[in-house]
Design goal:
The complex is a heterodimer.
Chain A lengths: L15 H4 L3 H26 L3 H21 L3 H22 L4 H22 L7 H6 L7 H30 L1 H6 L4 H39 L6 H25 L4 H21 L1
Chain B lengths: L3 E12 L2 E12 L3 E5 L6 H9 L6 E6 L4 H4 L3 E4 L13 H6 L12 H13 L15 H13 L5 E5 L7 H14 L4 E6 L2 H5 L4 E6 L1 E6 L1 H12 L27
Parallel strand pairs in B: 3-7, 3-8, 5-6, 6-7
Antiparallel strand pairs in B: 1-2, 1-4, 8-9
Classes of the chains: A mainly alpha, B alpha/beta.
């Protein structure tokens, strides 16, 4: 990242507090916290309801929404919101109402969404300067406006989960029984997929559409080792997310590496470490 | 006139052109304790799911507690045959049973609900395990928790699909005592394979193999069992205490 070239590097020890003096670093850490909230809360359901690949499908299809943003000249984060919600509803609808297995529905929307994005970018005038940041993330360059959108989406996600926590937990645990006790389980499932779609939008800037699935699964998968309580699992996942993305952010800055990929590698490394320690 | 718990008229269902149930006529009284028996693939589970309204029959009329199955569903307790949940699911016994008291969107659980959960756990003798994570229970213990989850709803109609499958024999006897006790307050329909044990405990037996072969007290039902299973059946009633039943069929039960 060339905009980091002017930062004194290697001469002195770089401390976390020093790098926080840079405005973009502060933004990056705020982004890390906002991202971790979304992935801690929604990621918990993604992991316990085992909808990891649906979430993968939604996150990749969101690229279509980003392409649309380029085409019509709007902030791609804004256009990604309706687009990924539409994808989430389509996957849910196709698998529940049409005789089509869910993984087939995921496969179709996953690739069609990405293909649409590529065509949209093709059709846009000029060239797309920061397209890579949507694909692979660039948490160091999140503008204030995007942070505000992330904050708003986080608030929507947290409120929805708070209101429907009983229903989400019940359908994750035993879908048939939740129907029997009168939970509108199909509607709740669709709503949960919409929350996945919103968290995908929150996460795009941090790690990019291709790596989002790591943030939606790894913090919850790590935290699952330490608690059997779903609410604590959400808190632990959020904290794990904050710590690990911050470490990733710091390492990517220190070694001048791509931030999204570094964060994912830190998450992966932490997961392996925890699994090994758990084994012993 | 007394309200019937379940009423079915000419109910038929096909799946991929294969008949699952054909022309079922059935009427179950309130507070009746009845077992549904029949071979695998005979449509027993499907029958329960029709009563619950989870499956709609192609033909015929179904009334449950005087209403359509969907509308009666909140008054039905249902224990499925397989509950394939993830053993590492982050939930303890108390939280699991509490789900049975679900009352609707935006409605929180009350103190009353929580007491009902503790009572239901006492009924199935699982009160010591309130805080235990589900994955750390044995199969039989999980089954008891799931029964508590069904009982805590105080249903008027209880549907049990092979409830004894993962319960050890001593516990089974306890369990039948429990069912006998609660059957005073609600209608119980239980799907079972174990013809012998079941017949010592229930009032009536329904023999089902695509068609309804009989709906009668165990002594009479045994006669038609041979038709249902298409081979001679001997009534082996293991587990004491139980009613001793008259033999209706021949001794050679090797084929069964």
């Amino acid at each position: 990242m060339e905009n980091l070239a002017h930062i004194p590097f290697g001469k002195e020890r770089i401390r976390m507090f020093e790098i926080l003096q840079y405005g973009f670093m502060q933004n990056a850490f705020i982004a890390a916290v906002l991202v971790s909230l979304a992935c801690g809360v929604v990621g918990t359901y993604v992991v316990i309801k085992k909808i990891v690949f649906i979430s993968g499908g939604i996150s990749h299809a969101a690229f279509g929404g980003i392409g649309l943003g380029y085409l019509i000249g709007l902030n791609p984060i804004i256009t990604a919101i309706p687009f990924s919600i539409l994808t989430a509803l389509s996957i849910g609808f196709l698998s529940k109402k049409v005789e089509l297995s869910e993984d087939t529905a995921i496969g179709i929307l996953w690739s069609v969404g990405m293909a649409l994005g590529i065509i949209f970018v093709n059709l846009s005038p000029g060239y797309a300067p920061d397209l890579m940041s949507y694909l692979f993330g660039s948490i160091l360059t999140v503008p204030l406006f995007d942070l505000i959108i992330m904050l708003v989406l986080d608030i929507i996600i947290l409120l929805t989960v708070f209101v429907f926590r009983r229903e989400f937990t019940a359908i994750s645990f035993d879908d048939e029984f939740s129907k029997v006790v009168g939970i509108p389980s199909d509607v709740m499932y669709m709503l949960l997929l919409c929350l996945v779609a919103l968290s995908v939008v929150v996460l795009i800037k941090a790690v990019g559409v291709i790596l989002i699935i790591a943030l939606l699964t790894i913090p919850a998968a790590i935290s699952k080792n330490f608690t059997y309580n779903i609410h604590r699992l959400m808190v632990y996942s959020t904290l794990t997310g904050i710590i690990l993305t911050s470490i990733g952010l710091w390492l990517s800055y220190l070694f001048n590496l791509a931030s999204g990929a570094t964060i994912v590698l830190v998450l992966g490394f932490a997961f392996i470490l925890v699994s090994l320690i758990k084994k012993i | 006139m007394k309200e019937k718990a379940v009423q079915m008229e000419h109910v038929s269902l096909e799946y991929n052109k294969i008949p699952i149930l054909s022309d079922i006529n059935l009427s179950i009284d309130e507070k009746e304790f009845v077992a549904v028996i029949g071979p695998n693939g005979g449509g027993k589970t499907t029958l329960l799911k029709i009563i619950l309204g989870l499956i709609k029959p192609d033909k015929g009329l179904v009334k449950v507690l005087g209403k359509s199955p969907e509308n009666a569903r909140t008054r039905i307790g249902y224990l499925p045959q397989h509950t394939n949940f993830d053993p590492s699911f982050p939930m303890n016994v108390f939280e699991c049973v509490l789900m049975g008291r679900y009352k609707g969107l935006f409605k929180n659980y009350s103190v009353e609900d929580k007491n009902a959960v503790l009572n239901a756990l006492k009924t199935v003798k699982m009160e010591e395990y309130v805080d235990r994570q589900l994955g750390r229970l044995s199969g039989g213990q999980i089954q008891r928790v799931l029964i508590a989850r069904t009982l805590v709803r105080e249903p008027e109609l209880l549907l049990l699909d092979e409830p004894m499958a993962s319960i050890d024999p001593e516990m089974q006897n306890e369990f039948y005592k429990l069912l006998a006790k609660i059957s005073k307050n609600m209608t119980i329909i239980m799907v079972s394979h174990d013809i012998g044990v079941v017949s010592a405990h229930v009032e009536n037996i329904i023999c089902l193999n695509r068609e309804l072969f009989c709906h009668s007290p165990p002594e009479l039902a045994v006669k038609s069992l041979a038709d249902v299973y298409q081979c001679p059946v001997e009534l082996i009633a293991h587990g004491i205490p139980h009613r001793v039943l008259d033999k209706h069929v021949k001794e050679n039960s090797d084929e069964y």
